[in-house]
Design goal:
Strand content: 15-25%
Strand order of the largest sheet: 7-1-2-6-3-5-4-8-9
Distance between the termini: 33 Å
Shape: globular
Structural class: alpha/beta
Number of strands: 13
Helix content: 25-40%
Number of helices: 9
Radius of gyration: 19 Å
Length: about 325
């Protein structure tokens, strides 16, 4: 089937209430019609995602976003600078916005973004609806950066899959909360803090986790492999796999994936989830992760690793059915 025909078929599936996995520049998303309660309920069920955890609504341009949320000067400045791109803005929900309250977890705000991927934009434009799209994986697990990862994690729960190759950025979007007088960084991601602060000035820092989050990626345990993950590793056991960064002299590990032998943070971010998947094998006792400098994209990488290493909920959705 030709690429255009696949986009048209995927758009039809979304309008009918189906679930469509599609690539973005960050990770693969699992899309549903943001205006349909039934479609959003199916999405939560497919991911086994807690319903208090809101979704990001993907749109094709700022005009479509402004039909859903109330923009202020800060939001306009960020959208003009970073959209399309890996930046999600949490803004007050517009009265009468055609978005399911389930997608926004019943909050008075919505997270919106314009993805910078030709397949994602073509899909949203063809569907002519806002598309709610968390990462296309079981809730709490490793995010997918290839179509193969989607199939591996969700299989037949996806009604249609658009394969756009590997994701360029490799970590989720940065999320900025603009619902208060001072902008706050809720989740580090593909746009680094330094770039944001050149536009907005100092942002309030994100807290470690939220019991009832205003944006996704705020739960204490998230982005996690099946194996236990050990942070700040300066040594490694013979039964451990090593997630390394840059040059090092560690030896004696069971397996290794180096995020970037040359110490490039963009390369490291793009490789993060695929590397963790490769190391997440039952013949390893755990994964030891070397530290990554917390500058630029390093903040997003370390945020994901800390949440991946956090204590798991007793009812871990990745271990169900």
């Amino acid at each position: 089937m030709a690429a255009h025909d696949r986009i048209v078929r995927a758009a039809d599936e979304l309008r009918r209430g189906g679930l469509v996995a599609f690539p973005t520049e960050t990770v693969y998303g699992l899309g549903a019609n943001a205006g349909s309660d039934d479609a959003i309920a199916r999405l939560f069920e497919a991911k086994r995602r807690p319903r208090f955890n809101p979704l990001i609504v993907h749109v094709s341009d700022r005009r479509q976003a402004e039909a859903l949320v109330l923009f202020d000067d800060r939001a306009r400045a960020l959208a003009d600078r970073f959209w399309p791109g890996p930046l999600s803005l949490v803004l007050p929900r517009r009265q009468g916005a055609p978005v399911s309250h389930l997608a926004g977890a019943g909050l008075d705000s919505l997270a919106v973004r314009v993805p910078a991927h030709p397949v994602a934009l073509a899909l949203i434009e063809a569907a002519r609806i806002p598309v709610a799209a968390p990462s296309a994986n079981p809730s709490g697990g490793l995010s997918p950066t290839s179509a193969h990862h989607v199939v591996e994690g969700l299989g037949a729960r996806v009604d249609f899959l658009l394969d756009g190759g590997p994701c360029r950025v490799g970590v989720e979007s940065t999320v900025v909360d603009l619902t208060a007088a001072r902008a706050a960084l809720l989740r580090p991601g593909g746009i680094d803090l330094e770039a944001l602060e050149k536009t907005l000035g100092p942002l309030a820092p994100a807290s470690g986790a939220d019991a009832r989050p205003r944006a996704p990626g705020r739960l204490a345990s998230h982005y996690a492999p099946s194996l236990p993950l050990r942070l700040a590793a300066t040594g490694v056991g013979p039964d451990e796999a090593l997630l390394s960064f840059g040059s090092h002299r560690l030896r004696g590990f069971a397996a290794e994936r180096n995020l970037s032998p040359g110490g490039d943070l963009r390369e490291a971010a793009a490789n993060l989830f695929a590397a963790l998947r490769a190391l997440d094998r039952p013949d390893h006792a755990g994964i030891a992760a070397m530290p990554v400098p917390e500058i630029g994209l390093g903040r997003a990488i370390m945020d994901r690793l800390r949440r991946a290493a956090a204590a798991r909920p007793l009812a871990d959705p990745r271990r169900e059915g």
